[in-house]
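Q: We require from you a single protein entry containing the residue sequence and its fold in token form, and nothing else.
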Amino acid sequence: MINFILKNPEVVTGTRDVDGKGNKLKKANIRIWTKFFDTISGIANFEQQLGRVMLMGSGSIPEEHMLLFSQFVQNKLDKLISPTEMLNGKSKEVIKKLTEITGTKEKKRNDLASILSKRLINYCIANEKDLTADQVENFALILESDVFTKDITHLLMRKVVQVQKLKPITHRPKLMEIYI
């Protein structure tokens, strides 16, 4: 459920205390969200069990946040591709799936691209010692594709130099253009 928190950080950060009408906004802390996510982790298909999921969150999670979660599930954002799938899958299939999620240049979903890029680089940072040459190559091919906009790719490249095993991809011509 990392994707949900990345898409809706206000549910834990509480960036505002009141709405535009002066009404006090409720917020749940990360412990409550973690407990909620642990509780629903055994449910295989959130969409089919949405009523049950909503019931499990009621009382501890503010109603407006549960509505955000419901919308998240209904938009199938709980089914976004994971970093391990991105790095371990066949690159052409992964890029095709990522393009379906993030859209084309005309209808780019930068919100989803941002979530996926954060998940991907964070995974690489956390698992650097275990990254294989094939995973590094898949990472490079994803960056060279049109999955992410140039600004997101540029931000990723700034993080890539911090990961020793990913540094060689900074010498690829297409990525050098974006990074420099």
User: Anything to note?
Assistant: The longest helix spans residues 110-126. The chain has two domains: 2-78, 83-179.
